User: Fold these one by one.
Assistant:
Number 1:
Amino acid sequence: MFFAQLKNELWKLFGKKRTYIGFGAFIFAQTLMLMAFKLTRWQSDMERMLSGNGYIPMEFISALTVALVMLMPQIILLMPLYVSLVGGDMVAKETEDGTLRMILSRPISRVRLLLVKWIAGIIFAVVLVLALGVMAVGLASLLFPWKGLFVFIPGQAFSVLPADVGSARFLLAHLFLAVNASAVLSIAFMFSCFNMKPAAATILALSYLFVNLVMEGIPFFDRYENWFITHHFKCWLLVFSDPIPWAQIFESETLLLAACASVFILGATAFHVRDIKS
Amino acid sequence: MIELRNVHKKFGSRVAVSDLTLSVPRGEVFGLLGHNGAGKSTAIGMMLGQVWPTSGEVRLCGHDVTAHRARALHKVGAIFEAPAFYDYLSGWRNLEILSHYTAPTSKERIREVVDWVGLTGREMSKVKTYSHGMRARLALAQALLPQPELLILDEPGSGLDPEGIAEMRETIVRLHRELGLTILLSSHLLSEVEQLCTRIAVLNKGRKVFEGLIADVKAARGRVMLKTPDFAAATKLLNERGLICGTVDGKYISLKDGRTTTEVVSALVNAGVAVEGIWQQDQTLEDFYLSIVKKPPPVPGSN
């Protein structure tokens, strides 16, 4: 029964046209990024940086490098926005549409219903992140060769990796990005469980992330950085370091997974005690 | 099948349902009446475990809804006003999704119910292409899938055209006759309730103001139409003589228990008040409903 219910939740999620419009928007944005990299000074600037650090640019201006460049703004901006939209819809939209009342005239417990929905949401988040990675690599491969990976994020990462190691790390990074996406989805999902409109749940989730990001950027809060969820979101970049700081990654991932579980419990508690009215 | 004992529900400081006690035995078609905001939907919400009662006990099919919601709702189907579906999915997929929240449901069972409600041939179309009547049939289908013993209908005729209302009425009769279901019907359509229900309860401002058999309501004496040149003076006199207990719309009088129209005519004629006409009206459910939710205005001259 649990898997049948989960399958149905996935039907609901992936049966909507809007879901695919989102994926389409990502492809569009990635194509723009690819064109911008290819046709502006972006590529030559990167080549200069590589040669300035003693590397042969042609060995590292590759499909993997460009895919990562294409992914970066999507991970920071579009992915949280889109995942929040989906997470904010999951319960609140059903309440708004009246379908939740239909479901809750059935003998399913509220906690189980939420659990099924949340797991469906997590599956969606993982599929989205994987799709983003595959689309980025696929598009970049059309214009760039499969060679080494160069990662540069000012103040955060500078790594040069051979193709085989680079692709493994690229894949590993997506595992942690999936956890990030799941955490964003869980926060929006939690707000969605309260008595509010879907848009309000999405806005609250994004506001929470924005406040975290802003506070984390204020020097006064440097010593409290571990308290900000956005700080832990950056741990996916650590997989490109050599050696990989596993302890730091483990700490951040544990915190993110705990945050996912905590916000789910909070949302489920709020949902359990509230009255569902037409 | 349904037992509500001293149920009370408050939303903040607003009392939605107050001290509601209700009992619907197996096999009955029970009508729940009341104006908008009277507490009908809140009461139904509490029966289905969607609204938590502030105090009191709600039992369905012998199980406490608050403590054992899954057991209480296992053999219950429900239809709401303006039934909502996943419009972007087919009717069949909607039925699969909703039925799986109760128990695994075979394709044969879904097919059987689709046939029963008359949706065969359209079950694979997306729900957004359905007419209002087809949505009502789909709502009925989803309610029947778990093979319920109790069906709760919250304003099922809302938004339907006269043909749709007639079809809904026939369907309810079939459900009761062919499947032997116990039915709780909440509706504004008093004529439907009058034709379908064996017993009713009336809610007014969250309180139950009446519970009884439809047959008793119909048998009860109705109001009396009195035609006289000076209605106000006539009713003042009748009130002083202790013959009436109220007036309605400036042309009807309500007789006190044991009083007859002959006594009214006699009192008026003896006092020199002309009587142009007087006749007893048959009481419809609407008359009865209005008489208990709208208190009759005080008779002129009475305290």
Number 2:
Amino acid sequence: MPHLPSFAPARPEEILLPVKPWFVMLTLILGLIGNLIPVSGVTLRLQPDFLALVLLYWCIQEPRLISVGMAWCLGLLMDVADATVFGQHALAYAVLAYAAEYFRRRVLRFPLWQQAAQVAVLLLFCAALVLLVRVVGGAPIPRWTYAVGPLVGALLWPVVTTLLQWPQRPRRSQAEV
Amino acid sequence: MRHISVEPPPFFHRGPSPLARLAFFGLLSLALLFADTRYRYLESVRHAVAVVLYPLQRAVQLPAEVLAQVTSYFSSQAALAEDNAALRQQLLSEAPVVQGYQLLLQENARLRALLNVEKRFQGATTAAEVLYSGRDPFTQKLFVDKGESAGVQPGQAVIDEVGVVGQVTRVFPYMAEVTLLTDKDHAVPVKVERSGVRSVMYGAGSGRLPELRFLSPNVEIQAGDKLLTSGIDGTYPSGLAVAQVVSVERETGQIFARVTCKPLAGVEKSPHLLILGRAAAPPQRPEEPAESDTPRKGRGRHRG
């Protein structure tokens, strides 16, 4: 009788099962829902961009399933949901998807905490890009709390990775246990 | 001898390279950004996508609503009784004002009839609840649970129990977006209650206090003065409390005084809001004489 895999990040030598496209879609929708949670005040400042995290994970793990164009479309959806200017999230997600495809081999070599540091740089870079574009467009410069969301997102990276790769981990047979 | 091609064989071909895609979608985003900030061409697209997103948004809000209802159901009887007593007390203390108000209304109507002035239009008001505050860190907005279906229109003023909160800027079928007083460059025409000086209050963005611009240093204003809407723009009805002056700096080297004010209403805190009906359409703006050199005055409307 197969056992469920333990809830821990996969070891580097472990070979993951192929991912199911519906699972990718489901997690992206869950990420979108996570972004739609109505919060305000301090929680709002701490809230990371869940959709960006999930997107980044799939872009790194399965670049064949998620392309730059798809990331861009999800960004447009987020633009409407957040009532931001059209193209703001779209630009950030497209850059994120491209950066993920460019850096994926490097990121995957590291243990999760060091991956999180690299993810922090990626997320902060996207945030800075959005800041630049908006400020050029005439928006005021936001407070320093603007950088908190991406950092919280990076801290959540190990959790997101563990959660999302759990269904892909091979089930161990009774003999192995 | 031919060397081996570096390109992948055609059956592995996956469309244009990621960099090409990034360039394409990046430029498209920039074009969209420009079109949306500058011209607002894309409101209908936004409307359509918002309708698709609405069920998802409601689904996310449902647990919080259920939780709030359950908590209110189990809220202790003592707390309710206390609340009730406080509200009765408040009602009583405001009774003279309310009763006098009726008298004043009648008197006002009679005087206006005598003077042949048009009646003041009292539009229908809509009570609304805040769904969530906007997540865009560059703007100050919030979303309320009443929209087109409840007759809300863009441009309506939004108040809470103390004063003006902001203005409806976008209306979706079942919700509306309210731009707050504190949003950058959101302008409200105000007058000082004590001296009657008119000015326009501009929001300054998140975490900064709104200010009155272009007031000469000798103007009759001081810290602690209350600002009311002047009603000049036709968007905000006159006489609503807006803000209190926090500081007035009159530097000799400057042409204008620096006046900062603090909104009275719980701009980012009030859970319950009232959307005021539109006042009767303001009279047409007089034709501007062609090629006159009179300075154009700011209209005090939110850029939109």
